[in-house]
Design a protein that fits this description.
- By secondary structure, this protein is mainly alpha-helical.
- The protein has one domain.
- It has three helices and no strands.
């Protein structure tokens, strides 16, 4: 992976993790944690969303939206595990 692609991936992950933390109140993990949650969320959304027929277009906005949906799913799962 080229350095520019890596930096873009980190930025998208950070934005998506922050947005997911705002949507799912009380579950922000700081800068590094938000990046990890955003990247993990993008991976999970990449597996789940196409299987249920939700295709996003290309571009940065679609990537952020895609990763945010996945990060919300990750944070929801974390909330369920912590409350159990």
């Amino acid at each position: 992976m080229e350095p520019v692609g890596f930096i873009v991936m980190l930025l998208i992950g950070g934005v998506a993790g922050w947005l997911a933390g705002q949507i799912v109140k009380g579950y922000g993990f700081g800068l590094v944690g938000n990046i990890v949650v955003g990247i993990l969320g993008a991976f999970i959304a990449g597996l789940i969303l196409p299987r249920i027929g939700l295709g996003m277009g290309g571009g940065i906005i679609a990537a952020i939206l895609h990763a945010t949906i996945g990060a919300v799913i990750v944070l929801f799962l974390i909330r369920m595990v912590k409350s159990a």
